Amino acid sequence: MSFPCHRPGQVAGLLQLLLLTLATFPKAFLLLTPPWSTTFKGEKVTLTCKDHHSLAQGYISWYYNGDFLKKGPETIQINKSGRYSCKTQRSSLSDPVHVEFLSDWLILQASHPVFEGDDVDLRCRGKKEKDINEKIYYRNNKVIRRDYNSEVVRLHSVSRDNSKYHCTTSRESFWIRREEISKPLKIQVQELFPHPVLRASSSQPIEGSPVSLKCETWLPPLRSHIQLQFRFFREDKVLGSGWIDSPEFQILTMWNEDSGSYWCQAKAVTPNIIKKSLGSQIHVQRIPVSDVNLEIQSPGGQLIEGKDLVLICSVAKGTGTVTFSWHREGTERRLGRKVQRALSAELQIAAVRGQDAGRYYCSADNLYGPILSKRIRVTLRSPVSRPVLTVRAPRARAVVGDVVELRCETQSGSPPILYRFYHEDVTLGSSSAPSGGGVSFNLSLTTEHSGNYSCEANNSLGAQHSEAVPLRVTVPVSRPVLTFNPARAQVVVGDLLELRCEAQRGSPPILYWFNHEDVILGNTSAPFGGGASFNLSLTTEHSGNYSCGADNGLGVQRSYMVTLNLTGLSTNKVIHITVGIIGWLLSMLGLAATASLVSHFRTQRKSGGLRATGTPSYSPKEHREPSRSGPSNTDPHRPIHSEPAALMELQPVYSNVSPGHDNLVYSQIWSSHHTKENPAPSPKTHQKDEEPAIIYSEVKKAHPDDHEGQAHEDAAENYENLPCAPLALDR
Predict the structure, then answer these.
(1) Which of the four, 210, 361, 436, 534, has the lowest number of CB atoms within 10 Å?
(2) What is the percent of the chain with per-residue pLDDT over 70, rounded to a whole number?
């Protein structure tokens, strides 16, 4: 069988660890019955072995003067002086108790057990108490108490020292006074708690890891009510805030410089007993840095020009204080440096620009030499600038049917760039520029394409819109249509004719002109579109072909020819002139008869005859008034002729005539009525069967020699109805 070989230092360390392990078991303790460590010879003392548990398990090991005595129950009786101790299976060896059996006449007894800081009872006892008068107690040969009546004397808060106590008394024996002295006694004061032992969770922790310290000690069960406090040290420096109630202390992170000797103190609050542990060495192990890595962090995951750049340098392994530094190729000066106890550090570069692009790396060092990271390339992305939209047409004015090019381009921005084209708020289409630059969109124009155009550029860093560009699509004029108003095939001289020219399509303004044969009559403009008119007062030269033209700058369009037939005087006018001449002749022939009738009517009026009322009388014959307003509004496809008198009713018309008499004024009145019979179509029938009924009324004049009262006669009396020959009515 082979055994592993250990170096002497290792063996010593193992032995020390074993001893500490054994020492840390709670001690057993002995109880005496009666509770005095000194007694008279012949008396018996019962020893009881106890540990921290309520019941001792198994046999108790008993020792006498340091030698093993026997294994037995927890209680034994003794009658021999010596040092007794015991040990249970769950405890370490108890403190020895020195029990003395004396044959002296006077003995000094001390109570047992006694712990540090306890009060102790001393009893000075003689074989015959009745013979004792006074008891004197001494410590180190100095009187500390005189007592006559008390059985015991109490000493307060004793400590573990080398003080010796004895007592004296005087007694009478055979009428002789004798002085008795007890044997010196050393009070057996047990430890209230043993010196603490400091335990660390690791004596060689890895740098950066936590360590737990524990200050181990214990109180005997008989003194478990006493409160203990603890304090921890590294070398001579107190850790934490000082005294604490817990026997454990946590060091969250151990660094290389934290290596050293650690120890602790334990203190009983009452009584004030302080004990310290031995020092325990802790050596912190440092791990060199390895696997240095550099990464880029930017808002939104993209490195944008004008934003902040964050460079993170990290190590996979490494402890202690690490020095981080950042560098860019081509630059001797480092970008930044940080020293901290961490596995990573970051450097922020504010508002990066184009010149900040390049290859970056970092280094890390924790006293074992710098370790470099791999190099990474940093490229910047810039948001697009505001794009510019241009419209390229094949001519100065965009015309329906033309193909125009919409060109959208931004001056700056990282590719790829997505462009969108808009007409008003409607998307026309989109196109991408993978390598940057601009894009085009072709549009075949219709009449609906007039309006405002814009475009948008976006490279995922924010969209930018161009300014609106207006586009007016011009529509060439269509062939115009020429119309006449009145719409008749034949018109007569003197009529006012409206020439209307209109193109159904065409962007304004439109220029119209009117042609008679090849002669331009005039022109006019329609600034808002629509048609235009030209008025023409007809003469005999205006017969012929008419046309019009339209132009809005995109080409001339001409209408079809329209023929105008122009005639002389109308039939109605001829009839009216003939009737007027005949009337004038008849009036001249009946002038004498008229004067006679006038005189006759005047005579009748004055004599109370017929009274002039101003109401016209009508001849049974009808008269037709010729048109005064120019051409008749009849069907243009029928020939123009005079209409029968039976179709018209002329309202009374009055015209003043003067037959030559200076003092008379006549008023001509006529009227023509409708007849229910169909009129004859021929104008000759009208002349044969109908004659106008004409009535003249005389209007009196006042003479200078007339009586003033006669000048103010009723106006109704100033008229007389006179028959008269027809007169010309066209004047």
Answers:
(1) 210
(2) 74
